[in-house]
Amino acid sequence: MRLRPAALLATLALAAATLAPPPAAAAETLRIPPIQYRERTLPNGLQVLSVEDHASPNVAVQVWYHVGSRDDPQGRSGFAHLFEHLMFKSTKHMHAEQMDRLTEDVGGANNASTGNDITNYFEVVPGNHLQTLLWAEAERLSSLNVDEANFKSERAVVEEEYRQSVLAQPYGKLFNAIDQYSYKVHPYKRPTIGSIPDLEAATLPDVIAFHQTFYRPDNATLIVAGDFDPKQLDAWVDRYFGWIPKPAAPIPQVDAKEPRRSRDERHTVASETAPLPAVALTWLIPPAADGKDLIPLQVAAALLSRGDSSRLYQSLVYKHQVAQQVGADADGRVGPGLFAVYAILASGHTTAEAEKLLNQEIVRLATQPIPDAELDKVKTQLLTGELKQRQTAQGVAFALGQATLTEGSPARANSDLDALQRVTAADVQRVLRDYVAGAHSVAIDYQPQAAGGKQGGAK
To answer: What per-residue confidence (pLDDT) applies to 39?
Structure first.
């Protein structure tokens, strides 16, 4: 859910205006200019999406690979994440970290991310450097040096990232445990960041096999957005990517079927760094391709937790003062997603108190009338946030990538905005009843553990 830069100022003005008028005016549907994208597929299977826009002299180049932590080998969690790092090392014709020089030295930027279903690499540079970036992305797809030195150095970096973001953060283990305990069968239960024992058990042949299996043109989507000439873009893409062979072996597919939950479950996680207890609750939701249900669930999560006026904040933080931080999220994925709520407690309160209030607010949202003004406000916030993301070429490219790889079609980048505006109170309550209030949950009880093994906090 994102939009192309052209005509954004007028569109944002219209979106902001919906905050002020009475409910009847606020409910009117905005006519949002769609992202005008071109799509083609090379003979080797590479999908190419492009959006020409000369609003600024910059161009965004992104390559999204259809591989994420769900594809990590058994007992090798963190492989997709490890490869995100390895792709910045040397290639046949590039030095290690040369992507920084090709982008930062001309006033641009580059980065990458790994998720459950995808690994993406993205750059933004002045438009006259587009050819160089296309060559560089094709170079690291086709000629990456996967050797012992690069493997060991980047494995150490990933392990340190795990220590900093999971072990050293007071609530890092809580959020890392959500996927682990929410799935029984699906490989989503393996954390994207990986684990130190799994990474240490990896070998160079494991890494080479992973690269050969998933880093191939027919498992990638190239997205270019911004200031370019379409004919020139096609010629460069054909020149730099077209020769890369498509392997004969099929791409492995995740076929695990997550079973429906038959009962509520509870897990306790101890923390050596958390000063106060916390609790998280999760429910399974349909894949992101099911926009009919995902978008109302996203609205429901926003009603529960977006801002200080949200229902969870008003109940747990302001009124009852049992929590200092609350949140909710509807996480859409290629496979089964998660609806999650959490609370980090205030001093002197228990996870049982917080869990009771979290469930009460979910039931209240699912069963009692939702004021028009509250629903319109949240929808406007979500819509405006998406439109702001699309003011840049990078944001437009991200919208297309998310829609294509997670939701199943680039067209969803446009249709989701219309669907968001059409969400009604009845839609929100229907999906909450179907997937949350009327379904089995997994609870994670997060408790501080004092030195010597004594667990703190009341249960």
So the answer is: 98
